[in-house]
Amino acid sequence: MGEQKQMKLAAYLIGTGMHVASWRHHSAQPNASIDVTYYQRLAQLAEKGRFDLAFIADSLAINHDSHPNILNRFDPLILITAMAGATSHIGLGATASTSYSEPYQLARQVASVDMISKGRIGWNVVTTGDATGETGQNFSRDVHFTHSERYQRAEEFIDVVQGLWDSWEDDAFTYDKEKGLFYDPEKVHKLHYQGDFFKVKGPLNIARSKQGQPVIIQAGSSEDGQRLAARTAEVVFAHKDNLQKAKEFYKELKDQLPAFGRKQDDLQILHAIAPIIGDTEEEAIAKHQELQDLVPTDVGLRFLSGYMGNIDFQAYSYDTPASEIDFPKVNGIQSQFDEMKKIIDTEGLTVGELYARLTNSARIDEFVGTAQQVADAMERWLEEEAADGFMLQVPLLPSGLEDFVEKVVPILQKKGLVRTEYNGTTLRDHLGLVKPENRFTRVLK
Amino acid sequence: MGEQKQMKLAAYLIGTGMHVASWRHHSAQPNASIDVTYYQRLAQLAEKGRFDLAFIADSLAINHDSHPNILNRFDPLILITAMAGATSHIGLGATASTSYSEPYQLARQVASVDMISKGRIGWNVVTTGDATGETGQNFSRDVHFTHSERYQRAEEFIDVVQGLWDSWEDDAFTYDKEKGLFYDPEKVHKLHYQGDFFKVKGPLNIARSKQGQPVIIQAGSSEDGQRLAARTAEVVFAHKDNLQKAKEFYKELKDQLPAFGRKQDDLQILHAIAPIIGDTEEEAIAKHQELQDLVPTDVGLRFLSGYMGNIDFQAYSYDTPASEIDFPKVNGIQSQFDEMKKIIDTEGLTVGELYARLTNSARIDEFVGTAQQVADAMERWLEEEAADGFMLQVPLLPSGLEDFVEKVVPILQKKGLVRTEYNGTTLRDHLGLVKPENRFTRVLK
C-alpha cells in the first residue's frame, strides 16, 4: 500500500450554514453573512482542524427565493482578504465568474490576495449558473450567456489569467540600488493573448507569490464542465447522491486527465458532504429534523416552483401526494424532472417530503451520525476512490463545524487520515500540488 | 469668525514614496509595494497623526517607463481591505476605474470593504488616464476610450453604483426567527437603471454600511472632470503649482456646486503637496536634492521622451539647454507643451533641469522646510481658501511621513487645525459629511 493517503478537507462557509432555515435556529446569528469577525473565527476554527482550505461561494444576482445567507453578503475576494489577516496557514478559496469579470482585473485581484496571504489562495472558477434568471440584467446584458458560450469563454479566461500570472519571473526584481536597476527587463513578459473572447497584452502589474500561481478550483459536472476541469482544475468539488455515483464521477473525471498530459494527483476531487454530528445517531437525525421543521411552508413551496420551472406549487399543500401533480415536459432541465419523477414514483413522496428531499443538504445519510460513524464513512469514501477529500457544507454554523473539528477530526487524525500539523505554508503545499514553473522561464531553458 | 475650521489630511501611500528614485535611497525598502505589513504600518502611522484617510492610487497597465513603485503592486481594493484590518478609525480610499470595471461588481466590492471597515471607505473614481497608451489592450480593446466617452460613462457608472448602494433600506433585515421573516420585502429595491452605457436591474446583494454610502473621491481637473466632480464628488484631490492657482481652482470648482443643488461643505478640496521636513530649511532642501541625484540619467531622458510624446530625448544629454530642442506641435497634449515651453524660455533650463522640474514631486517650495514652516504654509493655504486640506504625496516613505506625523502634526494640533482625537468612527464623520439618506426611503416619506 505504501504511504497512507490523507484526505483533503475544505470548509464551505456561508453565514449561518447551508440549510435554508439555519438562520432561524436558536443558536444562529442571523446577520452572520455580513459579520467579518464571524468568518474570521470560522476560518480559525477550520485552521485548528488542519483543513486545507476555507471556501466562499458566490452568486451575482438575488431574488425573493434566494437563500437568506446570500441576500446580504461580502464579495468573496474582499472577504478572503480579511480572513487571510486572521489566519496563518489555512488555504482560502474564493469564487469569481468568468462570465462577468475581466481577466486582467481578476488575475490581479486574486494574485494580490495570494501575495498578501503568502500563497494560500485558490480561485473557484465559475461560469455563473444564473439561478434567478436575472444575472445578465445586472451586467448590461438582456440575457445570460448560453452554456456553451460560457464554457468557451471560461477556457480562454483561464488561459489569459494563468498567462498573466507568469508575467514576472521569480528573480525579475533585482532592486540594485547601486546601479539603479529596479528589475531585469529580460524577465518581464508580455502575454499578447489573442482569442475569440479576449485580447490581452500584459504584463500584469504584480509578481508571482510564494506558491507560484493560485490554485484553480472548479465544480462543473456537465460535459463542458468536466472537460474544462480535466484541462485546468487542480481541485474539483463534486456533488453526488451516494458512494456509487461519486465513484463513477471520480473515475470519469480522473480518466480524462491523461489526454491533457496531467497526472492523477494533479487534480484533487473533494466531495460535498453535509455532516451532522450527534452523541448518538438518533441525536444527529433529530438535529437535522429540527432544521427541516424550521422551513416556512411558503419558502418550501416557492422553492419548488422555482426549481420545477413552470409549476405553481403554491396551489398545493405540503400534504398533497406529489404523484397527483402533472409535471409538464420542459426544455432544458428535462434531466431534473426525470430524476425527480423517479424519486416521487419510487418513494411515494408528498409535496412536503419532496421539498425536504430536494433541500436536504444532508442528503447522504452516512454523514449524519456519531463522530465515529461519520469518520468511518469518510474513510470508506476515500478508500473506495469516491473522493480525495471532502468539502463540508455544514447545515448549521458555527456549531456544526465546531462539532466536526472537535469530535471528527481527532478520530481522522488517529486514523492517520488528517494531518496533525501543517507541513507547509501554502495551499499548494497542503494539497500536494507542485509550484508551477513560470512558462516563460521554461521557454528560455 | 465662529468655530475654527480644521484641515483634512490624506496620506497618499505608494511603496517607497512618490519620488521616482525613492527606492534607491539608503533607507528605502525596495519591495515595499508588495509588503502588506509595510502598508498596514503606514496606515497606522497616519492614524496616529489623526489623518482623515490613507489613499491608494492605481493604473491598469505598466511599461518600462512606469514608476518603479507601480510595476509590482496590490490591487487597491484588496490592499485597503488588509489595511482596514490593521486600523480602527482612519478612512481608506481606493482607486477603481469606471472605464474598465462593471458597476455591479465595483459597487459590491467597495460596499464589502465599507461594511468590513465599519464605514471607513472612499472610492476614488477615475476614468483611467492611460499613461502607457496600452491600457485598452489589457482589456480586449484596441484603443482606450476617448476623453468624452470616458466621462459620459463615468457619470452613468457613478449613478448606477450609488443607486445599487441604496438597494436595502437600513431597517430591511428583520431577522424575525419566530415568524420566519428574514427581511421585509417592501424594503429592498430594484434599480432598473437604463442608460446609454449600462442597464442594471439590481438589487445589490449587500446592504448599506454604518456611513450609508462610501465617500466619492475624484481628481479630474479638466472641464469634464470638474463637472463630474461638482455633481458627484465629496473629496477632490487638486494639483496646482502655487497658492494662486490653487485658490482659482478652489473657487472655480466650489462655484459649480450650487448648480447641482450642493453646498460648499459637500465637497472637500484636498490639495496635493509633497512635504519634506528638515531641522533647518537647508536640510530639507538637501534631502530633496539627495533624491534628485539618485535618478538614473536614462530614466530621466526616457521619462521626458514619454512625457513629451514624439521627441527622443535620449539623443540629448542632461546638460543640453532645453531651448535648443525643437518642440513640434502635437494634438491632444498641446497645453502640456505650451506650459513647458514657457518654463523653458522664462528660466533657461537645461534638459536635466527640465526633468527635475517635471518630476519634482516637491514642486511647491513652501512645503519643503522646517516643521514650523510647513505647518505655517498649510495654515496659510487653508485660510486663503486654496484648499480644505491636503493630500500628502510624500517623496520618501516611510521616513517622510514619520517626520510629518511626529513634527508637523503636533504644531497643527496646537494651532487647532488638526484634531487630537477622532470624534467619530466613519470616514464621513471625519470629513464632516452627512450620512446620505437612502433614496428609496426618501421617496416613501
TrEMBL record, chains A, B:
In terms of Pfam families, this protein maps to: Bac_luciferase
Mind listing the UniProt keywords for this protein, alphabetically? Flavoprotein, FMN, Monooxygenase, Oxidoreductase
Domain Luciferase-like span(s) in chain numbering: 21-383
**Which InterPro entries does the entry mention?**
Diverse_substr_monoxygenases (IPR051260), Luciferase-like_dom (IPR011251), Luciferase-like_sf (IPR036661), NTA_MOA (IPR016215)
Q: Which GO terms describe its molecular function?
A: monooxygenase activity
Record carries keyword DNA repair: no
Protein family membership: Belongs to the NtaA/SnaA/DszA monooxygenase family.
The name under which this protein is listed is: FMN-dependent oxidoreductase (Nitrilotriacetate monooxygenase family)
Q: Which organism is it from?
A: Alkalicoccobacillus murimartini
